[in-house]
Structures are given as C-alpha cells and as structure tokens.
Amino acid sequence: MKFYKISKDSGKKIFHFNSNFIMSRVIQTDKTTNIGCMHLEEGGVIGYHQAVVPQLLLVIAGEGYVRNDKDEYFKVQSGDAVFWEKDEWHETKSDKGLTAIVIESVELNPSLFMPLKK
User: Fold this and answer.
1) Mind listing the pLDDT tens digit for each residue in 74-105?
2) Which residues form a coiled coil (predicted)?
3) Nearest CA to 78 among 63, 65, 56?
C-alpha cells in the first residue's frame, strides 16, 4: 500500500487564461487520459477557454459557479459533476473555495456511468 497527497501544497499555481487556481496532478494513462485535482481558493477562477478534449469536472468540496458560452452561471457544489465537450467554451469560479477532480480524455462518455442531475 502507498499513500499519496493531492492537497493544494503539492500542486502548481496556474495563471493561463487569466486563471488563478492550484492544480494537483493525479495520473496520466497510456490512453491519453489526464486526471487532476483543482483547488480554487476564495475568489479563484479557471478562466474562460475552450476545452481541448472532452472534460469532466467532479466537485468534491466547496461550491462555485460554472458556465459555457452563455453568460448564465450555474451553481455547483460537492457531489456535482459537469461535462464539457471538446471545443466547448467554459469557465469555473468560486467565491468561497472549491476542490474538484478534473478528467480529460478524447474517450469520455459520463452518461454510461452517471445519471443526469435533475
């Protein structure tokens, strides 16, 4: 058994796309799948940009807001999962702080495993 840290002190500050958050990488597979842990502190933001590949955001703590190419923000909190298709514009922000796992891969299809939120 081995134990690893995904806390924000093991992460790297990201400023691309006018962002302000800490990314803690978790794993990369041979199938070009990237999994990371994002730590948005108070006022943190993952800046508005296009998804390079399909992307799944799993909120594990805190709360925040997400949007796509519309100007409307939707509240997300622990237990929510948000999926963006390749090339879809999106942004995530938090007033109080948010921690999320992000999974990026050309082969993502979350509807195979998770029901839609009502």
Assistant:
1) 999 998 999 999 999 999 999 999 999 999 99
2) none
3) 63
Report pTM: 0.82
In a domain, 9, yes or no: no
- Kindly give, in sequence order, each residue whose CB lies less than 8 Å from that of residue 20, ignoring residues fewer than 6 positions away: 13, 14, 43, 44, 45
Domain membership of residue 78 as a residue range: 14-109
CATH number at residue 41: 2.60.120.10
pLDDT tens string 13-34: 999 999 999 988 777 677 789 9
Closest by CA position to 88, among listed 45, 47, 38, 54: 54
Terminal-residue alpha carbon distance, the chain: 38
